[in-house]
Amino acid sequence: MTREYSGQRVLVVAHQVVVNCFRYLFDRLTESEILALDREADVPNCGVTQYEFEPAAGRHGKLVLRAANFVAPLRAGGAAVTTAPDLPAAPKA
């Protein structure tokens, strides 16, 4: 993304594992920190996690977390936010 889309807005649509991997990398979290975040709550369906480039952060600027699991637009529009836990994996045949 840095090489191909520098200075541009980028939208990534992903599931929880990928969202958490981005958070792990962008926020420079330890393994125990990202696992703790994962245990705290699931990434909701249609939840928005937003990063913004902050030129004054770090030596050369960096992405800074602006919102995590943001679902207010869904609620404002009357849409239900999925809160049901994942179903257990089906037994292998």
Low-confidence stretches: none
Global shape: globular
Give the tally of β-strands. Answer: 2
Largest sheet: 2 strands, antiparallel
Characterise the protein shown here:
There is one protein chain. This protein is α+β, with helices and mostly antiparallel strands and 93 residues long. It has a domain of 61 residues. Helices cover 28% and strands 17% of the residues. It contains three helices and two strands. Helix 1 crosses helix 2. The longest helix has 11 residues. The chain is globular and about 50 Å long. The termini are far apart. The mean pLDDT is 86.
Task: Tag the structure with descriptive keywords.
single chain; 93 residues; alpha+beta; two-stranded antiparallel sheet; 17% strand; globular
Topology of this protein?
Blueprint lengths: L15 H11 L4 H10 L7 E7 L7 E9 L1 H5 L17
Antiparallel strand pairs: 1-2
Helix pairs in contact: 1-2
